Amino acid sequence: MVKIMANNKPGFIARPMDTLKNSLEKNIMIDVKGSRSYSGILEGYDIYMNLVLKNVSETINGENKGVFDKMLLRGDNIIFISPSGGD
């Protein structure tokens, strides 16, 4: 657990699982190993940060490769996860 100052609240503790919980049913962006990235709606996750996404857009080396109805991303392949600000 990392203690940081966020949202102008001293002593606020940001935890990865809280961020995922707050991102459920919202759009997120994910980069994984192998120059791949995904954008979709987070449906679920587990303690290993395996993610279930729906309406997923896949991009490989900057080229859009298509859209999938549902996808499971294995947590140990994930480089970063970013909640979208517009949802």
Could you describe the 3D structure shown?
This protein has 87 residues and is mostly beta strands. It has one domain (25-87): SH3 type barrels (Roll), CATH 2.30.30. The protein has one helix at residues 16-22, and strands spanning 2-3, 13-14, 27-32, 36-45, 51-60, 63-73, 78-83. Strands 6-5-4-3-7 form a five-stranded antiparallel β-sheet, with no helix packed on it. The two termini are 26 Å apart. Mean pLDDT is 87; it is low at 1-5. GO terms for molecular function: RNA binding. Residues 15-87 form the Sm domain. One of its GO terms (cellular component) is ribonucleoprotein complex.
Brief account:
This protein has one helix at residues 16-22, and strands spanning 2-3, 13-14, 27-32, 36-45, 51-60, 63-73, 78-83.
Number of domains: 1
CATH fold field value: SH3 type barrels
Percentage of residues in DSSP E strands: over 45%
| Morphology | globular
Distance between the termini: 26 Å
Which spans have pLDDT < 50 for at least 5 consecutive residues?
Answer: 1-5
Which features would summarize this protein structure in a list?
mainly beta, 1 helix, 87 residues, SH3 type barrels, five-stranded antiparallel sheet
Strand and helix map with partners:
Blueprint: E1 2-3, E2 13-14, H1 16-22, E3 27-32, E4 36-45, E5 51-60, E6 63-73, E7 78-83
Antiparallel strand pairs: 1-2, 3-4, 3-7, 4-5, 5-6
